[in-house]
Amino acid sequence: MKLRNKAFTLVEVLICVVLSVILLISLINIFGSGLKGSAKTLNLQDNMEAANILMAQIEHDLMNATEINIPEWNKNSEGSAQWISESDSSIGNIQYTYDYVSGSKDGVHRKVHGNNVNLDHYIAKNHLIVLKFTHYAIDAYKDDNNEITAEKHGVWVELTVSSPKEKDDKDAFTLKRLITIKKPI
């Protein structure tokens, strides 16, 4: 019997290396697309969370408004709003102001001013914000003093939050909410 050489030839080794590289590249592509999808989902979740926090704060501040300065009746305002609320305590009237700079990553600037109250902070930092307010007044009429009075008031708030990291708006999250004002103005 002849002794057989049990070693691999160079061609067999090269075929194994090429097949291994093709398999490895496929696995890396699959893993990479999974990571991209996961990052996109986390980005969208972050935008949703920032939008919900900001909308909840606006709704909380606006619910007890007694006077809306910006925007005027049945008008729109993009980027800023201002209203006054009565406080149940000795603080007195509180003025709320919301502002943002389009294209800035600073978020929304919230200012609260009243007797012994002076808050000034930002909400939804590191996000690109688009914030629109529409003040509506239904059943508006002129009273005996020729002043316009309204029976029902509210503000449509449209809020879009996106990440500054993204070049397109695929991960932008938009909330629209009608906030009715309990106290007549």
List the helices and strands and how they pair.
Layout: H1 10-62, E1 65-70, E2 75-78, E3 80-86, E4 93-99, E5 108-114, E6 117-123, E7 128-142, E8 148-162, E9 173-180
Antiparallel strand pairs: 1-3, 2-7, 3-4, 4-5, 5-6, 7-8, 8-9
Question: What would your notes on this structure say?
Answer:
The structure is a single chain. The protein is an alpha+beta fold. It has one helix spanning 10-62, and strands at residues 65-70, 75-78, 80-86, 93-99, 108-114, 117-123, 128-142, 148-162, 173-180. The model has no long low-confidence stretch (mean pLDDT 82).
Structural class: alpha+beta
Unreliable stretches: none
Query: What is the succession of H and E elements?
Result: HEEEEEEEEE
Proportion in β-strands: 35-45%
Order of neighbouring strands in the sheet with most strands: 1-3-4-5-6
The percentage helix is: 25-40%
C-alpha Rg (nearest Å): 29 Å
Q: Average pLDDT across residues?
A: 82
Number of strands: 9
Spatial separation of the terminal alpha carbons: 109 Å
- How many strands, what sense, and barrel or not for the largest sheet? 5 strands, antiparallel
| Overall 3D shape | rod-shaped
Contiguous helical run count: 1
Give the key terms.
single chain; 185 residues; alpha+beta; five-stranded antiparallel sheet; four-stranded antiparallel sheet; 9 strands
In short:
This protein has about 180 residues and is α+β, with helices and mostly antiparallel strands. The chain contains 1 helix and 9 strands.
